[in-house]
Write a structure and sequence with these properties.
961 residues; alpha/beta
Length: 961
């Protein structure tokens, strides 16, 4: 909406305050500023509010608004007087306003920093979280306008409104004055208010997906009159799955006399249906979708699955159609899966929904599946079906214009029918939110992700989301930090999902291998070593082994306290006549299941070669059963020498964790034992389970930010310095800091940078060395030679004036004139390992902390580790230990170990700096020489810029369209 001439020209309509939000019941609503055009809407809204709610708002009977009231409540300057409305279908369902006041409670302007706030919500929409959402947004608006506190007068009987304030999580004070409750809220976000906000977000978004997956009734709009076609196919699949709710066929082209189609009621429009329709599947051409959406919105449909194509995947015109589709659906409070979607499936016995183009509904199981590609969705459904795996839910989101992988994570987190969440993603609309949600979900159940479009640098057609510029390796590292199991292919995703859904988590990396093929056992052993596991020597049962032999060997391996997991290898065994037999796979499967059921809860995987019926028999064990018992207590990994994501061969046995089941626990019920056609696939799945279990153990005791950082950092001084460096009107492109400016800023956070002095000529170099003290280093700061000792850009250990002048002459003779080289002199640092520490802000992913060894390891081989900011002490420790070259820091080949605690402290200080000051958009400390005692930062470059927006810290909102 645009401002009218009556509104202040100095404060234009703040369209960035507009937001779509998900309410407590899963429906959506629009929050926007109130304008002078809203007079009729306001009056209509007020007429629908009960007398009791009006009394609570005005402390007296107030049956109608006067013209003066209407004018006052619709005319705002968007600074000292602000009003927001929540709308559905364009009509108000709730309002909030604030008026800035002074210490005496009278109207005021800045610098007064307090405002009186008041809410009013239609009775029909109370209990949906409308007031809570409004409070989040009006508080954000107030902070933007320099207001720090809200004051509110509430009648004691207005318990609902008192609860809204009390539960918001802000610091508040309450008193009872003149017959009303006086509340004062400090609007500075707190840890509690942020937790409350995210908790509400999780429940609302999970509920919005649950409404889509568990409708009481479904209408297929665009059902064909003849067999075939998208709509008729979906209707057939709904009926074949045995959907437990009501089903309707809708097509405006139906003959008036047609009352049923395929045994379900047939209608020409939703208006002809007498009952509530919860979910609409739209399968009409794109140009007819707006009409169908309007019909749905006007008749109270809660959600849409749009199968229709012809949107953003076809270019800019289609992208605009897609934006309008989302705006239209949200205006009615509906969420969308699609457009260009494949459909959704829910196998719960109470629902049995197959509103998709999949011809066969998968078996009921414990795996939830989300995909952004219909083709990949088909492949995954087919692959899981072949392996005998069942699903709890399935969403193929197509262009993911609305419902996304983040929403699916919210739903999966609390879905009791889902043990493992599998996601195929081609874009991350909000990477910060994704990693936050993934970390929380992964703490209770595995999250396995395949990321498509990894190297294209652009989003897939139809995906209108911010493009992240960080390398794919960094994305992978950040996912690992959040506990996500990142795999490269959909086959690997299925392999890992089958193991995680059917087996308990391994307590460590120690793997027993047994089978009737020595060669297959050796292949499995080699694969384990390649994946960082600790395999025991394979146990060869010989080709004459019977199913009972397998059972006995598996039972023995599971009972062995030095074994954390078992991989069984099997080939057709030799019969009494000496000939190979394919055998009865069901017999072997029963033997393996029996051994697994009778032993401790440890994961078991089977590698088989041409044993007919074995995989199917193992898969049939309990595809619909409840999950196997998993350890509820996971021991934390002790600190020690460097380790990759899986423990190394040198790690002590106790580092692997505790046994999968506590002593004295009854054996876990039999689970589905996954079977693999190749040793490498089984081992890779097991390795992912080991790394995930290790992450779970560590996540159980999260790291902390050391208290010493609070005592030795000067946050106010750094803020003042940054403000002065950026100036009153900072350049949006930002500015690099000089060496001295960078040293001063870093010094505020306890990061000393060794000083350098310019050396424009030999005499200046000698004078600089005299000030710094010999020995010194002579370095060029020219960009093309910086940190290039291999090209002669650095001369070290210059012990006296003669050596310095000689080096200076060679410098200029070989490399160029001093004006080109920009040489500097720096005192020598103690010998150690050269490392590089960086921090940068990605527009989509946020602040990222990186570490690697300087030179070829990080620049040529890409051996760099990454963590999201803010980093904890555990993050810092893992960061330096997770690079492949980490042994160099810990005494590789007899060298002296370096001071890794000092390096961890440096990482924490830099993390704190960029977290406290988002204006610091880039920092590079290179090289950082880490000696056996202490470290030295020899070079630093810092870039400042106006801080990018932090949507993850603002009030709840859906992505803008």
């Amino acid at each position: 909406m645009e401002p009218t001439p009556e509104q202040s020209p100095h404060h234009a309509y703040p369209d960035h305050w507009e937001a779509d939000v998900v309410l407590r019941d899963g429906g959506t609503a629009r929050i926007r500023p109130i304008t002078t055009d809203d007079a009729e809407r306001l009056v209509s809204f007020y007429e629908q509010v009960s007398d009791e709610s009006k009394y609570y708002r005005f402390f007296a009977p107030y049956p109608r608004l006067s013209d003066r009231d209407v004018h006052r409540f619709t005319h705002h300057d968007y600074v000292d007087r602000v009003g927001l409305a929540v709308t559905i279908g364009g009509e108000f369902i709730g309002t909030v306003r604030y008026d800035r006041i002074n210490d005496q409670g009278r109207p005021a302007s800045a610098p007064a920093d307090e405002a009186e706030v008041a809410f009013l919500v239609q009775d029909a929409h109370q209990g949906r979280g409308v007031a809570s959402a409004l409070l989040e947004h009006i508080a954000a608006v107030a902070r933007e306008r320099g207001i720090r506190r809200f004051a509110a007068e509430v009648l004691p009987a207005n318990n609902k409104m008192i609860k809204v304030f009390r539960d918001a999580g802000y610091t508040q004070q309450r008193s009872f004055e003149d017959g009303s409750v006086h509340l004062t809220l400090d609007l500075e976000p707190t840890e509690k208010s942020l937790a409350v906000q995210r908790g509400r977000e999780q429940r609302a978004e999970a509920r919005s997906v649950q409404r889509l997956l568990a409708p009481g009734s479904v209408a297929v709009i665009g059902t064909g009159r003849t067999p075939g076609g998208v709509g008729r196919t979906v209707l057939r699949n709904l009926l074949a799955a045995g959907f437990t709710g009501r089903t309707y066929a809708v097509n405006r082209a139906f003959d008036e006399g047609l009352t049923t189609l395929d045994g379900v009621p047939a209608h020409r429009s939703l208006g002809e249906i007498d009952e509530q329709v919860d979910l609409a599947v739209i399968a009409v051409p794109a140009h007819r979708v707006p009409e169908a959406v309007a019909d749905c919105g006007e008749h109270g449909v809660q959600g849409l699955v749009v199968l229709s194509a012809g949107y953003a995947e076809q270019g800019s015109a289609g992208r605009e159609l897609q934006r309008e589709l989302v705006r239209q659906a949200r205006s009615y409070g509906m969420r969308i899966i699609g457009p260009n979607a494949f459909g959704i499936i829910n196998t719960a016995e109470s629902v049995r929904l197959n509103a998709s183009l999949a011809p066969e509904s998968p078996a009921r199981g414990r795996i939830g599946l989300f995909t952004q590609s219909g083709a990949i969705g088909i492949a995954l459904l087919s692959g899981l079906h072949r392996r005998g795996a069942g699903l709890s839910s399935f969403i193929s989101a197509g262009n993911r214009a609305d419902v996304s992988g983040n929403d699916f994570l919210q739903y999966s987190f609390e879905d009791q029918d889902t043990d493992v969440a599998l996601l195929y993603l081609e874009s991350l609309g909000n990477p910060r939110k994704f990693t936050r949600l993934a970390r929380r979900t992964a703490a209770v159940k595995p999250v396995v992700v395949v990321k498509g479009a990894r190297h294209s640098g652009t989003n897939p057609p139809g995906h209108a989301v911010p493009v992240s510029r960080i390398p794919d390796a960094t994305v992978s590292a950040l996912m690992r930090q959040a506990g996500v199991i990142r795999v490269d292919t959909v086959t690997e995703m299925v392999d890992a999902g089958l193991l995680l859904a059917g087996q308990p988590l391994p307590a460590g990396p120690r793997v027993a291998i047994l089978g009737n093929s020595e060669s297959l056992g050796l292949l499995t052993y080699d694969a384990c070593l390649a994946e960082g596991l600790r395999p025991r020597p394979p146990v060869d049962l010989t080709t004459g082994a019977s199913p009972q032999d397998f059972r006995d060997a598996l039972a023995e391996a599971l009972a062995d306290g030095t074994c954390d997991a078992v991989i069984v290898t099997a080939i057709p065994w030799v019969g009494e006549n000496g000939e190979a037999e394919t055998g009865d796979g069901e017999v072997l499967a029963a033997a393996l299941r029996g051994a697994a059921a009778g032993g401790p809860a440890k994961p078991v995987a089977v590698v088989h070669v041409e044993i007919g019926g074995l995989a199917e028999a193992l898969a049939a064990a309990s595809s619909t059963a409840a999950p196997r018992t998993r350890p509820t207590t996971l021991a934390a990994q002790p600190s020690g020498p460097p380790a990759a994501s899986a423990p190394t061969e040198n790690a002590p046995p106790e580092a692997a964790g505790t046994a999968g089941a506590e002593a004295g626990e009854p054996p876990a019920p039999p689970g589905r034992i996954p079977a693999y056609p190749a040793a490498e696939r089984a081992v890779r799945a097991m390795a992912e389970a080991v790394k995930y279990a290790q992450w779970r153990r560590q996540a159980a005791t999260p790291g902390k930010v050391p208290e010493f950082l609070d005592e030795t950092t000067d946050e106010p001084g750094a803020a003042a310095l940054i403000d002065s460096l950026l100036g009153a009107t900072p350049d949006p492109r930002g500015r690099p800091l000089t060496h001295d400016e960078a040293r001063e800023l870093l010094g505020r956070y306890g990061i000393p940078v060794r000083p350098t002095l310019p050396a424009p000529d030999p005499d200046a170099a000698v004078a600089a060395a005299a000030r710094l003290g010999y020995p010194v280093a002579l370095k060029t700061t020219a960009p093309h030679l910086r940190h290039r000792a291999d090209l002669g850009g650095v001369r070290l250990d210059l012990a006296d004036e003669d050596a310095l002048r000689r080096a200076y002459g060679e410098f200029t003779e070989l490399l160029g004139k001093p004006a080109e080289l920009l040489p500097v002199v720096q005192s020598m640092a103690p010998r150690g390992v050269d490392t590089v520490v960086r921090a940068s802000i990605d527009a989509a992913a946020g602040a990222i902390l990186s570490f690697g060894l300087a030179g070829a390891p990080s620049e040529l081989l890409g051996d760099t580790a990454h963590r999201l900011v803010p980093a904890t002490d555990r993050d810092a420790a893992e960061l330096i230990r997770s690079i492949k070259a980490a042994p160099v820091l810990f005494g590789w080949r007899g060298s002296a170990p370096v001071d890794t605690p000092a390096l961890e402290e440096l990482l924490l200080r830099l993390s704190r700096l960029v977290d406290d000051h988002p204006e610091v958009v880039s920092v590079a400390l290179e090289p950082v020489v880490v000696a056996p005692h202490g470290l030295t930062v020899l070079g630093a470059s810092v870039r400042l810029a106006p801080p990018p927006p932090r949507g993850d810290l603002g009030p709840r909102r859906l992505p803008n369209y």
